[in-house]
Amino acid sequence: MSILILFACIVTLILLITWGKVSTFLAFLLVSIVAALLLGMPMHDLPKAISKGLGDTLGSLVIIIVLGAMLGKLVAFSGAAQKIAGVLKHTFGYKYVTWAMSITGFIVGIPLFYNVGFVLLIPIIFSVAANYKLPLVYVGLPMLASLSVMHGFVPPHPSAMALAIQFHADLVRTFLYGILVAIPAIVLAGPIFALTLRRMQGKPTLVFPDAQVADGEPPGIGISLFSALLPVLIIGTAHIVAGLCAVGSPLQTMTSFIAEPIIAMVFTICIATYTLGIAMGKRLSTVMTIYADAVKDIAMILLIIGSAGIMKQVFLETGVSTTLAANLQGLNLPPLLLAWLITAVLRLCLGSATVAGLTAAGIVYPLLTHGSVNPSLMVLAVGAGSLFCSHVNDTSFWLFKEYFGLSMKQTFLSWSLMETLVSIIGLIGILLLNLIIK
Predict the structure, then answer these.
(1) Taking Cα atoms as reference points, which of 173, 88, 101, 181 lies closest to residue 135?
(2) Which of the four pLDDT bands, split at 50, 70 and 90, describes residue 413?
(3) Measuring CA to CA, how many Å separate 142 from each of 110, 139, 303?
(4) For residue range 25-56, what is the model confidence (pLDDT) as tens digits?
(5) What is the C-alpha to C-alpha distance for residues 173 and 166, in angstroms, rounded to an integer?
(6) Which residue spans traverse the membrane (predicted)?
(7) For burial by CB atoms within 10 Å, which of 18, 136, 292, 359 has the most?
(8) How far is Cα 31 from Cα 26, in angstroms, rounded to an integer?
(9) With the CA atoms of 246, 248, 251 and 252 taken in that order, what torsion angle do they form, in degrees rounded to the nearest 10?
(10) What is the per-residue pLDDT for 207?
């Protein structure tokens, strides 16, 4: 009976978001409360479960996501992203332009959220296509494939970060495994797949936005790359140094402290405020305004992540997670494949990759406690499933269609197929990685 209630609640959640157009945050909250009552949770325990689910999920996550959003906004506003794209375009030239676009999306995609990166890089795609007289889809799809993969697989992006926290996965391992899985997915679904689209011509009618760059000269390529990749450099370097030091030594203690994601992001923001802000002639008040706008951009994402944590907590405290785990184990599917499949189905129903991943977290969480599953790979499996087959209920589908001036058929054959390839190639990479690291 409890399993039927759980699936009825998931269906209700999907209908509220897709058909009823209810705010995703409110839909999660309402369904979680109803689920708790139907599953027999005492009323006096429900407020505690809501507070615990919200607090445990956001407690260690909100600072990292907020600081990551601030860094991404500053990278965009300062012109660093455009500088990286321009240098790579001139370095690779006409013959390898799609590879230049992929690498740009890969680098810029580490600090930038997908929607911000999309709007920011669209002018570059149009400019490159016009300069080289190449089809927009051929030039643009590799870059957007990179952005999508980084958004779905790699912390500090909201969904991947939230999943890593909920699954108690090591962030450094998750990032490294994510990069290993991301590279073949980007290559095959980006430049290689784009070769089949060289004859696809769109009829763009929309005026694309100008690049979001403040007045003044953009930063140099060295500062641009350094600032965009700074969180990775700090955490990676600190982990390497900590591993080489004697256990318990002052240097090992200090570097382990710096390697903590929250501390690394604090250092990153302090440094980037100077390198991309004050050093470029911006007033400190201007940089703070950029940061304030970044927080506004991700406020709803934080609420959605927190409300998804409430649902997971309800499932755990009512015992339905344990029952579900026993039933899922009976399917005789590898846990990573099962997690990908459940998330892919939710993605088809819900549209949003972030919401699909967070919804799946509460369902697949029991798989971690009933089998020897690597938590980092579970994060990636859910992330890969959340990218599966973007279609008409996904805002990114319409962004791509309208900006590139494509028909519905063309959008399915380009964007939707690319997202499907990314998801399946990612899954294959995750399963192979699982065999290697066991």
Answers:
(1) 101
(2) very high
(3) 16, 7, 31
(4) 898 899 999 989 998 899 989 999 999 888 87
(5) 15
(6) 26-46, 58-76, 96-129, 136-154, 174-197, 228-251, 257-277, 298-316, 336-365, 377-400, 412-437
(7) 359
(8) 8
(9) 70
(10) 45
Count the neighbouring beta carbons within 10 Å of the beta carbon of residue 153: 32
Cβ neighbors of 296 (< 8 A, separation 6 or more) are none
Cα 106 to Cα 41, 139, 245: the distances in Å are 45, 15, 32
User: How far apart are the C-alpha atoms of 16 and 412, rounded to whole Å?
Assistant: 26
Most confident of 169-173, 189-193, 206-210: 189-193
The torsion defined by the Cα of 132, 138, 140 and 142, in degrees rounded to 10, comes to -120
Which residue intervals of 97-157 are DSSP H helices? 97-108, 114-132, 136-153
> Can you give the pLDDT at residue 213?
46
DSSP state of 154: S
User: Average pLDDT in the 272-297 region?
Assistant: 91
List Cβ neighbours of 122 (8 Å cut-off, separation of 6 or more): 140, 208, 209, 403
Residue type, 249: S
211 or 177: which leads in pLDDT? 177
Half-sphere exposure of 120 (CA within 13 A, CB side): 30
Least confident of 87-91, 117-121, 251-255: 117-121
With helix as H, strand as E and coil as C, how does 155-186 read? CCCHHHHHHHHHCCCCHHHHHHHHHHHHHHHH
Q: Compute the distance between CA of residue 179 and CA of residue 223 in angstroms, rounded to an integer.
A: 22
Closest by CA to 43, choosing from 235, 265, 314, is 314
Taking the C-alpha atoms of residue 438 and residue 436, their distance in angstroms, rounded to an integer, is 6
Asked if 65 contacts 161 with a C-beta cutoff of 8 angstroms, the reply is yes
pLDDT of the residue at 229: 81
Cβ(206)–Cβ(403) below 8 Å: yes
pLDDT at 321: 63
* Residue 389 phi, psi (nearest 5): 45, 70
Contact 190, 149 (CB under 8 A): no
For residue 109, give the 3-state DSSP assignment.
Answer: coil
DSSP-based three-state secondary structure for 347: helix
Nearest to 415 by CA among 124, 140, 128: 140
Average pLDDT over residues 151-161: 81
Q: How confident is the prediction for the chain on average, in pLDDT? A: 84
Of the listed ranges 90-94, 245-249, 325-329, 429-433, the least confidently predicted one is 325-329
Task: Determine the Cα–Cα distance for residues 198 and 7; give it in Å rounded to an integer.
Answer: 44
Using 50, 70 and 90 to split pLDDT, how confident is the model at 60? low
